[in-house]
Amino acid sequence: MAAPKKGRGSSGGQGRPGRALALILIAMVALTGGMFLSGHTTPRLGIDLAGGTSITLKAKSQPGKPDAINETNMNTAVSIIERRVNGLGVSEAEVQTQGASNIIVNIPKGTNSKQAREQVGTTAQLYFRPVLTVAGGTPTPEGSASPSASGTGKPSATPSAKASDPETASNSKTTPSASATTQGRAVTDALKKDATPTPSGSAKASESAAATQTPDPATAALEKKFTALDCTDKAARAKAGDGVKPEDPTVACSSEGDAKYLLGPAEVSGTDVDDAKAQFDQQRGIWLVSMDFTDKGSKKFQTITKKLSTQQSPQNQFAISLDGEVVSAPQVNETLSGSAEISGSFTQQSAEDLANVLSYGALPLSFSEDTVTTVTAALGGEQLEAGLIAGAIGLALVVIYLVAYYRGLALIALLSLMASGILTYTIMALLGPAIGFALNLPAVCGAIVAIGITADSFIVYFERIRDEIREGRTLRPAVERAWPRARRTILVSDFVSFLAAAVLFLVTVGKVQGFAFTLGLTTLLDVVVVFLFTKPVMTLMARTKFFASGHPWSGLDPKRLGAKPPLRRSRRVNARTDHPKEA
Questions:
Q1: Which are the contacts of 102, defined by CB distance < 8 A and separation ≥ 6?
Q2: How far is Cα 151 from Cα 146, in angstroms, rounded to an integer?
Q3: Which pTM does this prediction carry?
Q4: Are the CB atoms for 78 and 365 separated by under 8 Å?
Q5: What is the pLDDT of residues 440-470, one digit of tens each?
């Protein structure tokens, strides 16, 4: 008596199928409730179904680096752009190279897509440079005064000085040539002060003295550039530091265009930043970006802040330069190390954007937007409609086949397909905001293919039950004896399908991954539905008179299946017949 009980328990709970059904029904209710409570009642759509933006970025040649545009740097840029966009929660973004110098970025329409577009081409070259001098953002007109003329104008001593300040504006109007001369002289003095000649011999000392008396052409060019720089012009502001190496001094504008800076060589770069995040300062009521440095970067930061803390304003400031623009220029009053903050006129979005690009690193190349195209969902909608029609036709053919061949068992198959459909839909809807999953055309194809995989599992189980009935067993024992054999076949089949989907997901990119992900998800759900729904429902149906009696429309009619006589009676007859012969 013990063996049959053990067989029932190990076969899936013949006596308690309600537990498995209750479990999957609770899961379905919870997923459906979560879908409605979250407000995401439909799956997120990819760019081919929802539309979006397609951006072509063209790599710009780097000064002094003729071979910078190469396959390695292009692939690195693709990886960084993809991480930036995905870091904003934009799903199904496609980033890929086109030719030798172009990168195509497809961004679906939806949440954060605008932010993603703004960040895809941002180089995010971050440098910490000492401030040598600072002035208002407007250019100073050149006059006829000689360079030796003394003027009354003076440059602004703080980074917050604006061109519209009374003192600056007055000096610009009354003595324009003197103001230009003063700015030029301030540049020369700042560069001389920043230089650190090495007195290790009379030759070097004489060279240094000669350099002091004779203006360096590079210094003169920098003076002229600083004096003429108009930071109120957005184009001029963007090109102020073009072609300058990190180890050279440069000029730069504030991000608002109200101040211009003469900056020394870069002391710390963005590669020295380990992590960055946006934070809200409760005391000051502003958004800022906090950065943690690497060990190497922390030592560099400590060295430069120690040096700046002994200087007078404005040379006790360091400018935080991002892509050639000064986003912040704080004063240094003590030696710092380990971390830093970037403050300015940040909103929550701009602070989060800056933290995002700093966290994922700078692009190895500079890019310009070559073309920006808006992609409509019209074509994708037509293809989706055609795909859904094809799926509906396929599902209708499956239903017709089930009803014609399995009759009453088709009801169990249809209920199982409905359970699988509910689970698939709710999970896809919830995965959108959770992990950024977006439904595209290949993913829809994967869901349609899954109908056949799920129906195949039912057919395997039904045929095992029919085999047991053909052997002469009644329905209830046949249901339980058929389950272990069917279970092994279903698990092996689903494992192969899931393995294929996993490999496809890992070795492909873009939309094909959507097909692989959907196929893998529906394969896992097939196992859940067969174990927790189809088998318990079949056990319950076997107890009803309609199925247990072998009704012609049940699909389990012993006569129609060609069942043998009862198995035990056949064995007894054979035993009685064979015994005399053996004697």
A1: 56, 57, 58, 59, 370
A2: 11
A3: 0.56
A4: no
A5: 888 888 888 888 888 889 889 999 999 999 9
